[in-house]
Amino acid sequence: MLPKNPILGLCQQASFLISAAKVDQCPTDEGREVAFAGRSNAGKSSALNTLTHANLARTSKTPGRTQLLNFFRLDDERRLVDLPGYGFAKVPIPLKQHWQRHLEAYLGSRESLVGVFLMMDIRHPLTEFDRMMLDWSNATGMPLHILLTKSDKLAFGAAKGALLTIQREVRKGWGEGVSVQLFSAPKRQGVEEAQRVLASWLGLLEEASADAQAPDA
Fold it and tell me: Is this structure's pTM higher than 0.85?
């Protein structure tokens, strides 16, 4: 029988690794890496912290504070990456252009990247940035999992209705390769579902299955 949350053991030893302003400052491109992306103020850092049960990513009430590619070590072969928030109006245009250029360079060149979590505020989904990420995922075949964050801001029925609407639109526009779920960091809604996706991408489910099937020594 597989552990309920195979990612949690690794999260207990998670630690900050490095911040990179440019792709050539990133860690060695090997192993497995999962990135967290989202428009500024979509709840990206809160989601990362909640999923890992750790205070890895810095959260702020000021959108646009994540200005670097921030890498977190889980073990020698696995990392999480907090990507720069995108689209906040008060960020100077040259800085926006810098973020976009290096975000695109990272997404386009990173061999160890195995999946992307895309955070969307359930009240403001499928922004221009979100659609750009979906287009990129569709073109490259990169697995993408959408967290509809701040779902606690809507009544239960309204949140479920929004989920179904967004699932239909995503399926129609980008096919079956993108998954979508409700998520709330304060209420811890959808945490286990998202953790299973993260564990699968990081190869933890395969390892747990192999261990479960291995004969006793």
Answer: yes
